[in-house]
Queue: 2 jobs
Job 1
Amino acid sequence: MRIRRFRTGDEAALFRVYFTAIHEVACRDYAPEQIDAWAPANLDPDLWAERVRRIDPFVAESGGEIVGYADVQRNGYIDHFFVSGTHARQGIGTLLMNRLHRQARELRLATLTSDVSRTAEPFFARHGFRVVERRFPVVRGVTIPNALMSRQLEYAGRRPETAP
Ligand SMILES: CC(C)(COP(=O)(O)OP(=O)(O)OC[C@H]1O[C@@H](n2cnc3c(N)ncnc32)[C@H](O)[C@@H]1OP(=O)(O)O)[C@@H](O)C(=O)NCCC(=O)NCCS
């Protein structure tokens, strides 16, 4: 297993991870109409490619197969965080989360935030995130409840000369 940066050409594999994570794992916590609105099978490939290139995620790869991906933006926002449905609960999410924390330290971020699904909430809680607000976003006409979660990063925002 290795974690690397996104490369052009990864887009379709990332869609498979996204789709299976939602349709095979998150489906336990949401109704079928919510799952279909969140991850429609006919999502425009060009729009998808543009989206994943823009967020520029880290990618988890095992034996040449992409099995997960997650990003952190320069403001500390985690936009996507997905592990393939057939690879859940094998520690891949934790490897990605650790990589995001390393990136956050390098960017000297003080806080990480994300809009977290019901499915991912225990995982984010396990990694030190707390619920800030419960939200009810409407996606393609369907309400898909989630929670804004955040985690403060100790020392990360301090200037080197003020760090202990
Ligand atoms: C949430 C997600 C990213 C976690 O990835 P993962 O690789 O399965 O996570 P890990 O194996 O590193 O899990 C680490 C720990 O987090 C907790 N955890 C992970 N998934 C959990 C779940 N579904 N329910 C309860 N706890 C969970 C457990 O404590 C787990 O440790 P354990 O397996 O020893 O009990 C993945 O399940 C996923 O993609 N889910 C569906 C899509 C989704 O909702 N993505 C997030 C959008 S905000």
Note: The domain at 2-157 is CATH 3.40.630.30 (Aminopeptidase).
Job 2
Amino acid sequence: MRQRTLSKSYTFEGKGLHTGAFTRLVLKPAPENTGIVFERTDLGKTVPALSDNVALTTRCTLLSKDGASVSTVEHLLSALTGLGVDNALVQLDGGEVPILDGSALPFAAAIAADGLAEQDAPRRHISPSLPLEVKQESSGGWIRIEPADRFSCDLTVDFGSGVPGVQTVHWEEDGDYLREVAPCRTFVFFHEVQGLASRGLIKGGDVDNAIVIVDPSTPQAEVDSLAAMMGQPRLEVSPEGYLSNVRLHFPDECARHKLLDLIGDFRLCGGFIRAHVTAYKPGHTINSTAVKAVLNSIS
Ligand SMILES: [Zn+2]
């Protein structure tokens, strides 16, 4: 398969989920063998989307090089990978990719509408030749990677007896990324939002880009108090345990979002991975560990 890039440029603007900073992002076509490269136009520095540049993986994936950093890169990297974009330049005038609606859909829908431009060089595949497994003691999560001639993934999220419980998704690389994965939004837990709201760090509109997971036994009075703190109209808890600020696109949207994140984080191997990935309780930290293990195994 030959490399592909964007057929035109796209502009996105919005706030970052973690910094709250308003950022303008311009996504541009790039020459073959560029890969995905972030450019901080305010600093005049570039940060290639490569595992070596991963500096932090708490709550999002943050890349850093020569004093320039870009955080929350995973949803955009996922969209580019899911749609088969080999080369792109991502210009930002700030340090965080806008969260938009919390999914990869705004990026993916814009790119897919125009199609891609084919280039001459062959696609760069990363093909581990041996099975390997990484574990994260703190979360109990693990990721197993087995050689295969294409990418596929079985992913499980497990919140024990709590909401959203156990959800499993299966993915094949020729699946319909735009419809099945891209729309799935990030999620947070009610107590996390409560903590932020009580410190004045979050307002009503700020939860429109996340699914808020609530234990169904939470008293309505606590929900009312959160809505009041955020200046939000009345919120309710669905029987499945989600706050009524957003409607779920899929019953297993949380697991699908974790798949979205994994596809983005795995792009940091510097190409398209050819392997079967089994992931239990994945997150940015263990995803990053797995990518490093793959690269070590083939170097
Ligand atoms: Zn995410």
Note: Residues 74-75, 186, 257, 261 surround zinc ion (CB under 6 Å).
